[in-house]
Amino acid sequence: MFFKKKADPAVQGRIPPGQHLTRKWPVLHVGQIPRFDPATWKFETSGLVEAPMELDWAAFGELPQVDLTTDFHCVTTWSKLDMVWRGVPIAEILGRTRPAPEATHVIIHSHGGYATNLPLDVVNDDDVLLATGCDGTPLTPDHGYPLRLVVPKRYAWKSAKWLRALEFTSADQPGFWELRGYHNNAEPWAEERFG
Ligand SMILES: Nc1nc2c(c(=O)[nH]1)N[C@H]1C(S)=C(S)[C@@H](COP(=O)(O)O)O[C@H]1N2
Ligand SMILES: [Mo]
User: Fold this and answer.
1) Cβ atoms within 10 A of the Cβ of 57, count?
2) CA–CA gap between residue 55 and residue 44 (Å, rounded)
3) What is the pLDDT of residues 63-74, one digit of tens each?
4) How many Å lie between the centroid of ligand 1 and the Cα of residue 3?
5) Where are the beta strands (DSSP E) in 24-96?
6) For the chain, does the N or the C end have fewer beta carbons within 10 angstroms?
7) Given this model, what pLDDT does residue 37 score?
8) For the chain, domain boundaries
9) Tens-digit pLDDT profile for residues 85-128
10) What distance in Å separates the CA atoms of residue 30 and residue 103, rounded to the nearest whole number?
């Protein structure tokens, strides 16, 4: 069957408009890949939460992790299907840090100053992970080691690499790309590329 791979309808139905399938995993980011230092690394929650968290790498490693297969859509038009992420479900964080009733948004902060923003109800979804690995191995430095956010239902710039903090707020606060003309909501099936 020489032409079996062409236009598989099951695959086509998972590629949002204007996107194409990639089998490679491109690397995209601004700035430098940070060096991981387990002595100084920490993950924090802050802002409108009942119990702010501050975890070092060892403590973070004690949180429960799961494997979850999801698709990944970059605004530069590549989509990668069936990525097997390993990570801490966002529910494990929300359950511990307990956002206050006034919290409506999450500002996602990475090492080096990259940030992105999402409504709390978008972050609070079953497929959102704080990922430590993909496809059976730890994340490589270029893909966010040791920790990145994964938000499969939004364009990939919302999936911050080198994640360091989640800040809960009562007002939205555009992040790096949102301030530079990208759409605030970034939903691939609605092609929310530019604001
Ligand atoms: N900290 C940080 N995270 C980031 C970015 C970045 O520049 N800095 N780029 C985003 C963009 S635009 C994309 S497409 C994805 C790419 O993830 P990948 O390099 O693992 O494919 O990371 C996102 N996360
Ligand atoms: Mo991107």
Assistant:
1) 16
2) 6
3) 999 999 999 999
4) 34
5) 42-47, 54-56, 66-73, 78-89
6) N
7) 97
8) 15-23+38-190
9) 999 999 999 999 999 999 999 999 999 999 999 999 999 999 99
10) 29
Angle at 195 between CA 29 and CA 85, to 5 degrees: 40
CATH of domain 15-23+38-190: 3.90.420.10
Contact (Cβ atoms closer than 8 angstroms) between residue 43 and residue 146: no
Query: Among positive and negative, which fits the CA dihedral 24, 131, 148, 60?
Result: negative
Residue with CA nearest ligand 1 atom 18: 27
Distance between CA atoms of residues 161 and 191, nearest Å: 22
Report strand pairing: 129-134 vs 115-119. Answer: unpaired
Q: What is the pLDDT of residue 6?
A: 63
Determine whether the shortest distance from the Cβ of 83 to ligand 1 is under 6 A: no
- Which residue puts its alpha carbon closest to atom 10 of ligand 1? 157
